[in-house]
Every structure is written in structure tokens, then in C-alpha cells.
Design brief:
alpha/beta; Rossmann fold; six-stranded parallel sheet; 17% strand; binds guanine
Length: 286
């Protein structure tokens, strides 16, 4: 049986570490880390995510605030708010929830957040730092993927890693982090030929394609470590809705370890956001 990597437990442990860091900063006379979340319009899923993020801040002692703006907010007003937050010494992390309404240029908005407060790690400066291995803030889900891998792998050097999916938010940053860890990295995508063959050589597979149960048992080398970033809601045989990942979980029990969906990568993302906020708060206070 493959080891089931317990994302919930690993996220809890990271939260405890983050809380201890917050307590240490406050005891040392530094400002308590502060995260601000901006939500424009009324998107059901975004509201749930924002509520979870705010609640998670409370648990570890991070100050949080929310800016809820109407869907017809002008781009100019949004940029003015971000400019104000960029200058606010109590705010160390700024997260502007996406998707934004169509009349707003998302790339421009994300670029307007100070790279030092960009706890999502989406700003081109942070993307550049990551791709050159020169620090900066690492996007939350890729950081979570690396922590989960680190829970079962001691030495990454020379391992064959296959990343399925080339998104800016997951695939590309994960590939950069694996390269920094000295893996040999192959990034595959929808036009990749012979994907099963490529996957079969991998010591590590990170599946982030958003394609339910794409990775079959026959694609997986015995002893490989599998991280499933996909999460899709489908109707099961019993007619009930269920969440499935990009990996056919029941078929990969010959792997060394695999993350479940739910309970794998998902819980790590918010824990990494909190860790990034503390990192930003420390860096901003010298
Ligand atoms: N929307 C869904 N996930 C995220 C995220 O991690 N960051 C931002 N800014 N928006 C999101």
C-alpha cells in the first residue's frame, strides 16, 4: 500500500510553526503580521476562499482585514486602494482574489501590488526571483507541493520529476522549485505525446492538469511519489457529487506515497499563505 500523505496534518504542523513565529515577532517588539484580502464582486467560490483565509489568520495570530468592493468598482479605484495598502505599515501581505470582473485588467492589478507584499507570489518580480533561484515569495500551492514532497523524500538530487500541466500558478513554479532542488524536470501539457511513457520513468509526479483521474496505475513506476493538485467535482455512480483528483488514487497503490483528494494539497495552500505573510512581515521590518 502506498503511504497516504496527510496534507491536513502537515498543514496543521506548519500552522503551529507559523503561530510560534508570530509570537516570537511580537515578543521581540516587531509589528504583528497583517494580511489584507481584496474581493471585488460577488463570486460564491471566492467568498468561501476569502472567509477561510481570514479565519485561518485568526488561528495563528495574524491580523487580517477585508476589502469587499462592488462588482462595478472601477480599475482606477482598485489601483488606488492597492497603492494605499502598499504604503500602509500595518499591512504586510496583500491578496487580491481572482477572478476579477471582466472590465478590470487582472495582470495590471496583480503587478500593482508591491512585490514585497505579494503573498500570492504572482508578481513578475517574484516570478523572476523564483525562476532565477534568488528568493522572493513562492506561490502558495507550489510551496505546499514541495513541503508535501519533503515529508517523504530526503534527497531530491537527480530524481526524475514529471510535472503535468504548465500553468503559471502551479505547473511552471513547481517545475522551477523542483529544478532548484536538483531534480531532472519534464513539464508536460495537453499537446505532449506519449505522456504515459514519460510518466512511467518518473520518481516524482506532480499532476496539475485539472483532468479527473488522468494518471492511471499503469503510468506509475513502483516506488514513485505522487502529488495530486487536481480537484474536480463530479457525479459518482451513486449520483452523489464527489471530489476527484488528477490521479486514479485506487490504481496507484504500488507508489511509495500519494496525496489524497481532498486532504492532500488543498489544506497546504492556506497554511503556506500564512507562512508567506509572516515571511513578508519579517522582511519588511528588516
Ligand atoms: N482565487 C483562487 N485561488 C486564489 C489564490 O490562491 N490567490 C488569489 N489571489 N486568488 C485566488
Amino acid at each position: 500500500m502506498a503511504e497516504k500523505i496527510d496534507g491536513r496534518a502537515i498543514a496543521r504542523a506548519l500552522d503551529e510553526k507559523t503561530k510560534a513565529q508570530v509570537d516570537e515577532m511580537v515578543a521581540a517588539g516587531m509589528k504583528r503580521p497583517g494580511l489584507t484580502v481584496i474581493l471585488v464582486g460577488e463570486d460564491g467560490a471566492s467568498e468561501v476562499y476569502v472567509r477561510r483565509k481570514i479565519k485561518a489568520c485568526e488561528k495563528v495570530g495574524i491580523n487580517s482585514s477585508e476589502h469587499r468592493l462592488p462588482a462595478d468598482t472601477s480599475q482606477e479605484d482598485l489601483l488606488a486602494l492597492i497603492e494605499k495598502l502598499n504604503k500602509d505599515p500595518e499591512v504586510h501581505g496583500i491578496l487580491c482574489q481572482v477572478p476579477l470582473p471582466d472590465h478590470i485588467d487582472t495582470r495590471l492589478v496583480l503587478r500593482s501590488i508591491s512585490p514585497d507584499k505579494d503573498v500570492d507570489g504572482f508578481h513578475p518580480v517574484n516570478v523572476g526571483r523564483l525562476s532565477t533561484g534568488t528568493g522572493g515569495i513562492v506561490p502558495c500551492t507550489p510551496l505546499g507541493v514541495m513541503i508535501l514532497l519533503g515529508s517523504v523524500i530526503d534527497d531530491f538530487k537527480g530524481l526524475d520529476a514529471v510535472v503535468i500541466g504548465k500553468s503559471n500558478i502551479v505547473g511552471k513554479p513547481v517545475a522551477n522549485l523542483l529544478l532548484d532542488a536538483e531534480c531532472t524536470v519534464t513539464v508536460t501539457h495537453i499537446y505532449t505525446e506519449n505522456l504515459p511513457e514519460i510518466a512511467r520513468k518518473a520518481d516524482i509526479i506532480v499532476a496539475a492538469a485539472g483532468a479527473p483521474e488522468l494518471v492511471k496505475g499503469s503510468w506509475v513506476k513502483p516506488g514513485a511519489v505522487l502529488i495530486d493538485v487536481g480537484i474536480t467535482r463530479i457525479k459518482g455512480e451513486d449520483g452523489k457529487e464527489k471530489l476527484v483528483g488528477d490521479i486514479a488514487f485506487d490504481e496507484v497503490q504500488h507508489a511509495k506515497a500519494v496525496t489524497p483528494v481532498p486532504g492532500g494539497v488543498g489544506p497546504m495552500t492556506i497554511a503556506c499563505l500564512l507562512a508567506n505573510t509572516v515571511q513578508a512581515a519579517r522582511a519588511l521590518q528588516g
